[in-house]
Amino acid sequence: MRTPLIAANWKMYKTTGEAAQYGRELLEELAARRVSVTAGEQGQPGQVAVVVCPPFTALAALGSALRGSPVALGAQNMHWESSGAYTGEIAAPMLLDLGCRYVILGHSERRQMGETDEQVRRKVQAAAAAGLIPIVCVGERIEERRAGQTESVVTRQVRAAFQNLDAAAAGRAVIAYEPVWAIGTGEHASPEEANRVIRLIRDTVADMLGSETAAAVRILYGGSVKPDNIGPFMAQPEIDGALVGGASLDAKAFADIIQQAEVNAA
Ligand code: PGA
Which residues constitute the domain of residue 36? Predict the structure, then answer.
């Protein structure tokens, strides 16, 4: 059984002070709700895993606030080289140095700015080699959806990202299916539709790396997830959690989502 994972993607929001405050508040809210968060990727039945991904500049402040807690720290991007003349970039060892365990890669907001499948592949490989858990984002744009290309786009992105990854690294990885038209729009995929695409993603991983790896990989839904709509997503058999943007900025709302996930986990 896969332990549900709820991930917060703050995008380009919050200062160091706000991040520290949020960290304290989130731990208080989780304690008040008696939510059992596992410190590892695989917890006991009834537990949930949680990661918060702030901007690079707030990693240290949030990391201090969360220290000693089971809530993990993650980044929103990284470069594939481990050091070098790459002005403005951040490398995996720097993220590990700040206590990161996860890193979001290939988010559609980055792909829209020109990040390619090939770059995502290099980043995924570098993250896995460094011991970071990649959260690989895939999803179709609205025009691709209208053209009936959802399956082909998502399959292409998964194949590119997982190419050359060994089964052990792939089994630890996380994939987030985020239809681009559902991000920040208030419009979300139906839980059944998300489950169908996520099943297809799992089948793609099985085809590449075998059914054992496919059964281990955690696949999340992302796109306008809120406290009042997370339940039906978590009740779907293939959906292992959520990547939450807007609603994760408020510690109370994010704690509500985590609590709902724990209650509704299939
Ligand atoms: P949203 O963002 O929850 O605000 O739609 C999700 C994401 O971008 O990961």
Answer: 5-265
